[in-house]
Amino acid sequence: MALHWPSEDVWQAVVPLLPDFTVEVLPELDSTNAELMRRVRAGQTAPVLLVAERQTAGRGRLGRQWLSDDSAAGAALTFSVTLPLAPPDWSGLSLAVGASVAESLHPQIRLKWPNDLWVAGSDGKTGDHKLGGILIETAAVAEQRMVVVGVGLNIGPRSGEGLATPPAWLQQLWPEATAPAALGRLAAPLLQTLLRFERTGFAPFRTAFESRDALRGRRVSVFGGAADAVDGVACGVSPGGALLVQTEACIKEVTSAEVSVRPA
Ligand code: BTN
What pLDDT is recorded for position 49? Predict the structure, then answer.
């Protein structure tokens, strides 16, 4: 079934903020992040929102794959946006993006530091069902830094086969959700978030993140990266977006982009 994308509406809402902005929808790509990184490395600096109805080699954080359910175009929303960005400090960007996407879509979406969107389990306590993820990459081009922000969201039911965390999908929360409708809700606020982040950094997004923090109060293990593993209780995020973990000795700030965090 053909999907009807709200490209014109998104463009109309965003172009007053970003004059060269364009929206592009392609039936299939390896990865919207990979495609925009190729374009950026080839010198493209105009802001673009690129949707792929299907991705054949979606990428996740830490070199992992992002596996879409490939049963039908539109079973997932997969898109990336690129623009030049010069924030005072890049830390916390994935948290601000997550808060923006969650706020646009549903009050029950939780955020798992640093880049996952989760939905609470049916018992209301567990949050280990992954609705989506965020992948942020940057590249320097012509003396400016371009950011590529990729977002993948499950829209319709999907199996958990091959996934580290059981999946959730948007139609569990919003039964009429489609990939185009979800994009229509979240795209303009996301671009506004990126432009605001450029002016302010993470600090003004902290409250929004913390109101959806899926880890707060839960025992977590942080592993990977250069530092020793950290075990403790997650207790929010710092003004710079670091994960705060209360250990027996102290509160540790976890900032590495290379770590994995798992609830114990
Ligand atoms: C993660 O969960 O580790 C991040 C997943 C990010 C997936 C999105 S889908 C659109 C964009 N293109 C990609 O290849 N990855 C991101």
Answer: 98
